[in-house]
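Working notes for the structural subgroup meeting. M.R. asked for a predicted model of this chain before we commit to crystallization trials. I am recording the input and output together here so anyone reviewing the notebook later can reproduce the run.

Input as submitted:
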Amino acid sequence: MTSMGEIRVQPSGWFMSGLRYISQLQRRWGTRAPRQMYRMWRLHRTSFDEILENVFAALEPSDAKFAFPTVASVARMKPELARSIEREGHEVASHGYNHVRYPMLSEAGRERDLALSLQTYRKLGIDISGFRAPYDRYTEDMPRIIDKNGLLWDGGFGYQEEHREKTHFFRVESESGSLDTTFIPLNILSDDLMIDGRGWGRKEVTAALKTQVKKTASSGGVVMFDLHPIRMGQKEYAPCLGELAEYAQEMGGWIPTPREAVTYWSKHKRWKSDHGFCLLLTGDIDNWVFSDYLRRMIWRRG
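Returned structure, recorded in token form:
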């Protein structure tokens, strides 16, 4: 037995960890898994320090904010990078402790992974208000578990097909009534879909995102994108963020962190400074470096 504060080394070692990672790639990418693995290796040749700087620089002219749901076991490896996000006025959210599919865990396992992620961030001195499950995979009990942990917002449950087209924040009902956590619909357009899946370049990505922003402007609601920094923070694509933020502001949009947006909307039922709609830019951080894909599977807690 190990305590929650201890690190446990899996006896299976690098070999079994590598097999697990390759198996995950095969489930998602099929015969394209080797190519995808090579693609991620190439992306990680850019340091995450540079990736974050590219994101910050792209959004600074518009004073737009970004939220980074980050795997806690990865954050603890380089806490200075996670802290730099807060220093720049952006938001860190939980992406679980281990980057695993929650439906593959028991209910107790799901609760433990989320609680351990929050415990880790508390030890790092990072304030966490939001959550997104790895792979956007949720189970029916996840809204209750998220609410139980006192989280203000969730940005992944809204990716489920029945919620994806919603235009405003929503609540989830439980047996005891409405949960306090605010759930945010997540747009289907992600960087991996557009760049890896469809092979789009910078202009096509920007145009597609602008189309969704224009649609949201007409509804007066909110749109959230999941734009992983590992792709969108590359020199080639980071300008998309700046162009998108500038366009949204020209359309009358507000681009805060999810924490700020949910807090203000919950109190006033309108957007700050009478903006016409809200754009939420988010992007998951699964690893700092390529070797983290394997390392995070070897070093476990709980």
